[in-house]
Amino acid sequence: MERWWNDGVKMPYPDAEIQEYRDAIQGHDPTYRYLALIDERPVGMFQHYRIADDPEYAAALSLGEDAVGVDLFIGEANLIGRGHGSPMLRKFLREVAFPFHRLDVCVIGPSMNNTPAIRAYEKAGFRPLKQVTVPGEPDSEFLMRLTAADLHSLQT
């Protein structure tokens, strides 16, 4: 995870990155974070948020529709690339993110350089939407989209 977070944008690392999580815990950021568990063992984190709650990010994405944003981080190196991400993400969307926001569209924006994440999100049902440049981010995002109807049509 340090490879993606220690990108020179939020300095000094890791304090500036950690401050975002403090802000969320204290209710200053409308991003909701959860532990990702495998066999009751914490292995990473999920987060969800309404895109419109961050006007600068919403403007950069220019979706033309209201949407949920999600992210998944697996922090255990030995679990990356083992097929856990896609089913965990589908379950998180079905049980948490979509019901919480009561919206029918979800987007996820991995770095254009994060090919393993893009593949995992495709396996979860996300489809490519467009490449976007987000102010303050070092890489363009490969924006991907999934609807609640598409998610419910997928098995498991």
Structure description:
With 156 residues, this protein is an alpha+beta fold. The chain has a single domain (31-153), classed as Gcn5-related N-acetyltransferase (GNAT) (Aminopeptidase, 3-Layer(aba) Sandwich), CATH 3.40.630. It is 35% helix and 26% strand. The chain is built from six helices and six strands, in the order H-H-E-E-H-E-H-E-H-E-E-H. It has helices at 2-5, 15-25, 55-61, 85-101, 115-124, 148-153; strands spanning 32-38, 41-50, 68-74, 105-108, 127-132, 141-147. It has a six-stranded mixed beta sheet. A hairpin with an 8-residue loop joins strand 5 and strand 6. Residues 1-6 have low confidence and may be disordered.
Any low-confidence stretches, pLDDT <50, length ≥5? 1-6
Strand content: 25-35%
Q: So what's the overall shape?
A: globular
CATH architecture: 3-Layer(aba) Sandwich
Number of DSSP-assigned strands: 6
User: Can you tell me the CATH superfamily?
Assistant: Gcn5-related N-acetyltransferase (GNAT)
CATH class: Alpha Beta
Tally of discrete structural domains: 1
| Strand neighbour order, sheet with most strands | 1-2-3-4-6-5
Mean pLDDT: 85
What is the count of DSSP helices, taking H or I runs of 4+ residues? 6
Give the helix proportion (percent range).
25-40%
Radius of gyration: 15 Å
How many strands, what sense, and barrel or not for the largest sheet?
A: 6 strands, mixed
The chain-level structural class is alpha+beta
Short recap of the structure:
The protein has 156 residues and is of the alpha+beta class. The protein contains six helices and six strands.
